[in-house]
Amino acid sequence: MTRTGRGGSHRSKKKRLTLALAPVAALGLAVPLMYSAGAATPDEVANDCRTDSDKLENCEFVDVQNKADSLGPNERVTTVTDNCGISTAATKTFSGTAAVTRVVQLENGFGVDGGTKLGNSFFEIGLKFNTQEINIKRDDTTSSFSFSRSDTVKADHIAFFMWSHKRTDVSGFLRATYKEEQNGQKVFFSPSEGAATVHVFYPQLLKNGTPDGRLWLRNVKCGTPQADGILGSGNSVRAEPGFEEGGANVTDVEVPLSEAGFEPK
């Protein structure tokens, strides 16, 4: 009886010991699995694609949707002409340059070099959207035009030219294929398969190869917060409202590109 009691007590201790060790063993297995699974997160996929990592076999952009004739940023492309305190309008000469390039916008805000695997993919996707009706800029070089023309600055106003280029916005996701399997697979997506949050903006070009878009003369009433802000910034770059979005103190007049007298570059 005594032996049987001791034997039962001994077996019970073994069971308790096994139960105590089991969670530790499970935790030890979980660590390498978690590390492996995190080796290709969406952010890391985007970064590997952007930097053309040698871990990649390939990286490509998969388009999901597109929109032609969207407008790019509103840019001031000439210096500011000051006609403040003058009671009559004045004719002034404006000279400026507007430039465009293909822009890639990943979720983290980084661009992509055109010489990478991903850059080649963007070029190939661009071929798909280059049609007889819309000529787009597929590579990452710059196209620009310069213009010089005389226009009217209103009495007690400042004036300058604004520009917003036309572009085709193609959105989709990145598909990366790694040379070595990570957690049992080689293909990963950023941000996810089927997403439309990676944007490629292809500038649209005129038949002569110069950028297409909207060019307009903006007059701003002197002594207003809008004019003071512009004069206070000198000729530095600053955010400007779009065409006919400046408010009551701002007058915009569009100039057709055919009348701008621009010279291709």
UniProtKB/TrEMBL annotation:
<keyword id="KW-0732">Signal</keyword>
<feature type="signal peptide">
    <location>
        <begin position="1"/>
        <end position="39"/>
    </location>
</feature>
<protein>
    <recommendedName>
        <fullName>Secreted protein</fullName>
    </recommendedName>
</protein>
